[in-house]
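Pilot study result, target chain (55 residues):
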Amino acid sequence: MPLLPKIFKNGIALQTGSDNILNYTDKNKLPNLFGRTYFINCTVIIKQLIKKNKK
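Predicted structure:
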């Protein structure tokens, strides 16, 4: 369940989230399903960086 990203003025966006929040696992039917997973995503918006550097 990703959350809305936080976009900073310098052209960087950060996003955090988690998947399988209830930690459901069934090793007999879904052996490749891990438990709870957390993630952090960092995105650099190049268009915004170029625009800022031209000023």
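One observation from the pilot: Residues 46-54 form the longest helix (9 residues). A full batch analysis is planned for the follow-on phase.
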